[in-house]
Amino acid sequence: MNKRIWEFFFVLAAVALMVVLFWRPARAPEPSPSKETPPPTVGTPRPEPTTSTVVYTHAAKEDFMNAKGMAGWEETLQTPIPEPSPERLKKGAKLYQDNCALCHGSVGKGDGEAATVLDPRPTDLTRIKNYKYGHMELGVFRSSKYGIEGTGMAPWDGILSNDELWNITQYVRFLQED
Ligand code: HEC
Predict the structure, then answer these.
(1) pLDDT value at residue 16
(2) Ligand 1: which atom is nearest the Cα of residue 169?
(3) Do 102 and 112 meet the contact criterion of CB atoms below 8 Å apart?
(4) What is the distance between the alpha carbons of residues 77 and 80, in angstroms, rounded to a whole number?
(5) How far is the CA of 108 from the centre of ligand 1 (A)?
(6) Residue pair 127/50 in contact by the 8 Å Cβ criterion
(7) Which of 13, 20, 61, 135 could form a disulfide with 131 if both were Cys (CB 3.0 to 4.6 A apart)?
(8) Peptide bond into 120 cis (omega under 30)
(9) What is the predicted pLDDT for the residue at 47?
(10) In angstroms, what is the span from residue 54 Cα to ligand 1's centroid?
(11) Distance (Å, rounded) from C-alpha 170 to C-alpha 125?
(12) What is the CB-side half-sphere exposure of residue 178 using CA atoms within 13 A?
């Protein structure tokens, strides 16, 4: 091979190297990120779900007034309600079947196996108007945790944790129809 051919290959290699190093395909400008949804940044911790948020609306408190004077009324008002989530609902459904369905029935109609022998009968939890002690979060939680004296509704305090009871409460709310 003569010198000219070597030179030719050298120039060709140099040009190829330049192309590899400096050529970039033209890119469409990136859309500017919207303020509502900043792009996730690697290494930036996301805010944890606010499990300690107390979400007591006026309506929830008013509904809970029906249970005033009953066991655990004050304590329940001090208990933070964890943020509802699909996971909680799922856990609540299981806990409900294991602990409550025997009396309240598998979908809350008050027709569980043990229902007929009880007086008063277990509440049909699907109908809002049936609730004497509050049908919203605070009421359902209190009735479940501290029970209803003089009825078959025993307190679950010490058997189920607050967390488990909130899961069940969320499920009971889910069963409510009107
Ligand atoms: C041994 C039977 C029995 C079991 C088990 C039971 N309950 Fe009850 N529950 C009752 C009865 C009976 C009443 C009705 C009390 C009344 O009419 O005052 C009641 C009432 C209630 C109420 C109150 C409704 C109202 O009037 O405001 C709620 C809420 C409730 N139960 C939820 C639960 C949950 C949640 C569980 C499971 C953790 C559960 N119950 C397990 C028998 C039971």
Answers:
(1) 79
(2) 35
(3) yes
(4) 8
(5) 10
(6) no
(7) 135
(8) yes
(9) 47
(10) 24
(11) 12
(12) 0
* Pocket test residue of 103, 145, 156, 165 for ligand 1, highest count of atoms within 8 A of CB: 103
The amino acid at residue 87 is: E
Q: CA geometry: angle at 145 spanning 105 and 115, to 5°? A: 25
Q: Tell me the best of 132, 148, 172 to mutate to test the pocket of ligand 1, counting ligand atoms within 8 Å of each CB and taking the most.
A: 148
Which residue's structure tokens are 């699907």?
A: 126
Half-sphere exposure of 6 (CA within 13 A, CB side): 3
CA distance linking residue 4 with residue 26, whole number of Å:
36
> What is the C-alpha separation between 101 and 95, in angstroms, rounded?
9
Question: Tens of pLDDT along the chain (178 residues)?
Answer: 578 888 888 888 887 777 777 777 666 556 555 556 555 545 544 444 455 556 678 888 899 999 999 999 999 998 888 989 999 999 999 999 999 999 999 999 999 999 999 999 999 999 999 999 999 999 999 999 999 999 999 999 999 999 999 999 999 999 999 8
